[in-house]
Structures are given as structure tokens and as C-alpha cells.
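Late entry, evening session. Most of the bench is empty. Finally got around to the prediction I had been postponing all week. Sequence below, unchanged from the version circulated by S.P.
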Amino acid sequence: LDGVVPPIKKAAVDPLLKAVSDAKKKAAHIVKEMDYMHRREIRMHRTSTSTNSRLFWFGVVSVGALVGVAAFQVVYLRGYFRRKKLL
């Protein structure tokens, strides 16, 4: 046995080939799942950003409407009371 490797029997190699094949399939499935999760994370980030932007502008418009209505009420009531000679 000086440097001579005994022949490997097919019965010993087949389970190893099957295990390697299964490992490759599982790794491919994991990579595919990670890609899906990455795309899902990007989509959720876009949704979150869009929602935050819409809520910000809704708040700005609401405050603007509130200030506008308050200013209208002040002007209207001031004119009303002046016409009635209460101011």
C-alpha cells in the first residue's frame, strides 16, 4: 500500500452523492427564500414610506383647514358684531 489507494466501491459513494445533492437543493431553496424576503422587505419599506408621507400631508392640510376656518370665523364674527353695534 505504498501510495496506492484502494478502489472506492459505488455503494459507499452513492449515499454521499445523494447527501451532496440534497444539500445543494436545500441551499438553493434557502437562497430563493432569502431573495423573496429581501423583495418583500423592499416592498414593505416603500409602503411604509408612502404611508408616512401621506399622513404628513394629511396633517398639514388638516392644520391649514383648521387655521383657515378659525380665521374665517374671526373675520365673520367681527363683522357681525360691528353691524350689530356690539363692538
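Two things to note before I forget:
Residues 10-83 form the longest helix (74 residues).
The chain is about 85% helix and 0% strand.
Will write this up properly tomorrow.
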